[in-house]
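Task card 7
Instruction: Convert sequence to structure tokens.
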Amino acid sequence: MKKYILVASMLIIGLSEMAAQVDAGFTNVPVVNGKVVFEQFILTDQGLSADQKYAVLQKWVKGKYAGSPLVSGIRFDDKNQSATVSAKTELSGMPEKTVMNYRFDLSIASAGCVLVIRDISYQSTPKQGQGTSSFPKTITAEQTITDQAVNAAGEEAQIRSSIRKETLSFLSGIYKEVSGLF
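Output:
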């Protein structure tokens, strides 16, 4: 009997840890073949067909991104039931005006939706009344938010760390929104 209680306890603990990982969003910066690529698989309601899931995805993308001046492109692929959005956002809490450019793909799969965020870059310009920027005008995520970039010595280390924190927070927000759709 004690063995069954022990096994049941271990299963409950394991499941709760898995649930915490699923809800975490993005907490680190993955590098794949030298490029920063964020990827999450989102489980969806199995009562919905693939066409219904794709319709939900299309409605959300159109409602959130269509007509926004911060969006440079939206593409839907009805055959593969996927969407690609290219956009930008201003990161808050930065000493300089920092705009993040990003692209994300959403693809419907049999058991869920795959979210891939890639092609991230930053443009920094001094806020009015401040001096010139010590950062290059346009920089890639690979130069800015990876572990190697953040841990490098120098004046920009704190700025890189702040950019990384704001980026992870913003991308986790996208993940949570998409997770809430299904």
